[in-house]
Design goal:
69 residues, alpha+beta
Length: 69
């Protein structure tokens, strides 16, 4: 299995709740949180871009907030 380099989000700062991202050679985008590093979300860059644009536009504001304790 290849070794991947994860990059910490610049928005995470020095906090313990960090988001990491990496990209495969085929362009697949992977995301994970520092508190659950074995849980990885994989998506296409275009799909993730659409998600970010929707979030910035407020299209997801009506969704319930799920908090994991």
């Amino acid at each position: 299995m290849p070794t991947y380099t994860w990059q910490k989000s610049s928005y995470s700062g020095n906090a313990g709740n960090c988001v990491y991202v990496r990209t495969d050679r085929d362009g697949t985008l992977h995301l994970r949180e520092s508190d659950a590093p074995d849980t990885i979300l994989a998506t296409a860059p275009a799909t993730f871009g659409a998600f970010i644009r929707a979030a910035k536009a407020g299209a997801l504001d009506h969704l319930p907030y799920w908090h994991r304790s």
